[in-house]
Structure formats: structure tokens, C-alpha cells
Amino acid sequence: MVRLPLKIDRSNQSGFTLVELMVVVAIIAFILSIATPNFSKLQLKNNIEGETRKLLSDLNQARSAALFAKTPASVAFSTGSYVVTSNGSAAASSILHYPLKKSDNSDLSGTTISFDTNGLTANTLTLMVSPSGSGAVVDCIVVDQVLSNMGQMKSGSCVLDVQVR
Questions:
Q1: Is the pLDDT of residue 164 over 60?
Q2: Does residue 99 have a cis peptide bond before it, meaning omega lies within 30 degrees of 0?
Q3: Phi and psi at residue 150, in whole multiples of 5°?
Q4: Is the confidence at residue 162, as pLDDT, over 60?
Q5: DSSP-based three-state secondary structure for 14
Q6: CA distance 151 to 161
Q7: Which of 25, 99, 110, 120 measures 20 to 30 Å from 79, CA to CA?
Q8: For range 122-137, the mean pLDDT
């Protein structure tokens, strides 16, 4: 008959105890609780920068379409969206994820930026992508007679000499 030993020899066994695993899980949870708010701020910043760049691209597209097709083009803003019209038909439309405002904080809905056959506009204004103060590198657009450019809102005005990454 074979007899089994009553004592189990644990000297050759390796692994983690439950207490060690719980400490590691607690450390990971603590690090994630610190990183999550920072990630949310980074995501907001990147979304605002992306929306600003897309709006500038659409404005430049309307300006270019007017210049090269020698037909008027426009960008019409409504609450929560805008439509780019070229050659009498809607060329593109976009839904805004953040509110757009003029530099005086007034609402932009009902505003139309029109470009003549030379790509020029008489509608010079500054557009702000809200919320301002988000830390975004670019969060405003200045539409001038011959050029549209993006910048960063500082002290109530759009500063155009920012380093765009």
C-alpha cells in the first residue's frame, strides 16, 4: 500500500498571493483614476481643434470653388450645422459638435459668408469654436476679405501667430 504524506511541501511552489494581486489591482485603479480626467481634457482639446480645422477647410473650399468655377459660393450657418453652397447647389454640409459664436459672443445662426467670383468676401468676421479656454491650440477662425486663417482665442481676440501642430 502507498501512503500519501500528510504535510504538503510548498517550498517548490511559486506564484502570487491574493494579497499581492489585490495590491496591484488597487495601484492600477489609482493610476487610471488620475489618467481619466486628463484623457477627457485631451479628447475635448483634440475635438475642438479638429472641428476648427474642418470649418477652415470648408471655408477655403467654398472660396476656391468660387474662384475657379467663377460662380458665387457661400457658407450658411444655422443652429448646430452649416451648408457650403457652390454653383447654386449644396456642395457639402456639416453638423457642428460644438457651438460656434462670433467674436462678440453672439450666435452665428442665420449668418452667411458669401464669396464672389474672385473668391473675395465682404463678410469679415471672427468665428469662435466654444468652449473657449479648452487649451486647444486652434479654436477660432478669422475670415477676411482675401484670406481665412485659424488661431487661438486670447483675451477676447483671435491670435493668429500660434504654432499649429
A1: no
A2: no
A3: -110, 155
A4: no
A5: coil
A6: 7
A7: 120
A8: 81
Per-residue pLDDT tens for 101-128?
A: 887 778 888 889 999 999 999 988 998 8
CATH of domain 19-159: 3.55.40.10
- Between CA 80 and CA 84, with CA 83 as vertex, the angle to 5 degrees is 145
3-state DSSP of 81-136? EEEEEECCEEEEEEECCCCEEECCCCECCCCEEEECCCCCCCCCEEEEECCCCCCC
150 close to 141: Cβ distance less than 8 angstroms: yes
SS3 21: helix
| Mean pLDDT, the chain, integer | 84
Q: And the C-alpha cell for 22? A: 489585490
Q: Which residues pair with 94 in a beta bridge?
A: 82
Structural domain boundaries in the chain: 19-159
Q: Which three cell numbers stand for residue 64?
A: 476656391
CA distance 161 to 37: 29
The 10s digit of each residue's pLDDT in 28-42 is 999 888 877 778 888
- In the block, cell 486652434 appears at 138
CB 113 within 8 A of CB 100: no
